[in-house]
TrEMBL record:
Record-listed E.C. numbers: 2.7.4.9
The protein, known as: Thymidylate kinase
GO terms of biological process kind: dTDP biosynthetic process; dTTP biosynthetic process; dUDP biosynthetic process
Enzyme class at the top of the EC tree: transferase
Classification via Gene3D superfamilies: P-loop containing nucleotide triphosphate hydrolases
Coiled coil (residue ranges): none
Superkingdom of the organism of origin: Eukaryota
Boundaries of every Thymidylate kinase-like domain copy: 14-190
UniProt pathway annotation: Pyrimidine metabolism; dTTP biosynthesis
UniProt family annotation: Belongs to the thymidylate kinase family.
PROSITE patterns attached to this UniProt entry: THYMIDYLATE_KINASE
UniProt-recorded Gene Ontology molecular function terms: ATP binding; dTMP kinase activity; nucleoside diphosphate kinase activity
Organism for this UniProt entry: Diploscapter pachys
Length: 209
């Protein structure tokens, strides 16, 4: 494989608010990697609404069923654990994995709703640690202007503001801040630059408390 020094794929995470453009850009990066490399990439959205637990989450988000806040948190986390074997196998084959949201959404949304920091972090400890987190920073005005906002549960302005605040506290040294107020082509260029500069450790790490 021509994928870096270690031969393994990279784990790339897109995070950010609803309407920050991360799903569009995650797809664009997927297409770019598949068009320009031999190793290729797969796209893994979280929540993954196709998987059994993800189907329940989907129904919750569409206001069809209810969850207690802690049960919901664990469902989002279980939804990621369900995909852990696939992520590890894919990375092992030298293929990149692009996640549209990950454990940082899990922690930030649940903390914004008032759950305890150490409790919410626990259920994701041991999941594969991303090589890079692309954090899409968007102003509330721009996000609001993009339409569709407010259709699903959790797409509420005040909650979104609190989530953004909690996300600040999760930033690590592998985070890259993307100015998501820019036009799509500018954002795409910034994402590609970040992709070209990923520094991979020999082995994929794990999330810690
Ligand atoms: P989506 O719009 O990216 O499909 O995500 C659906 C909602 O789920 C979104 O408001 C963010 C929220 N979410 C959590 O609350 N916890 C999580 O762990 C994840 C992955 C998403
Ligand atoms: Mg959404």
């Amino acid at each position: 494989s021509e994928n870096g020094t270690s031969g393994r794929g990279a784990l790339i995470v897109f995070e950010g608010m609803d309407r920050s453009g991360k799903s569009t850009q995650a797809r664009r990066l997927l297409n770019h990697i598949n068009a320009t490399t031999k190793h290729g990439a797969i796209l893994q959205p979280f929540p993954d609404r196709n998987e059994p637990i993800g189907q329940l989450i989907d129904r919750y988000l569409k206001r069809e069923i209810d969850f207690s806040e802690k049960a919901l948190h664990l469902a989002f986390s279980a939804n990621r654990w369900q995909k852990e074997p696939l992520i590890l196998e894919t990375i092992d084959k030298g293929v990149d994995v692009i996640c549209d949201r990950y454990a940082f959404s899990g922690v930030a949304y649940s903390m914004a709703k008032g759950l305890d920091r150490s409790w919410v972090r626990q259920s994701d400890v041991g999941l594969p640690r991303p090589d890079i987190v692309l954090y899409f920073e968007v102003s509330p005005e721009v996000a609001k202007s993009r339409g569709g906002f407010g259709e699903e549960r959790l797409e509420k302005e005040e909650l979104q503001r609190n989530v953004a605040k909690e996300m600040q506290g999760l930033r690590g040294e592998n985070w890259i801040i993307i100015n998501a107020n820019n036009d799509e082509d500018t954002v795409e260029r910034d994402v590609r630059i970040a992709y070209e500069n990923i520094i991979k450790t020999k082995e994929l790490g794990k999330l810690t408390e």
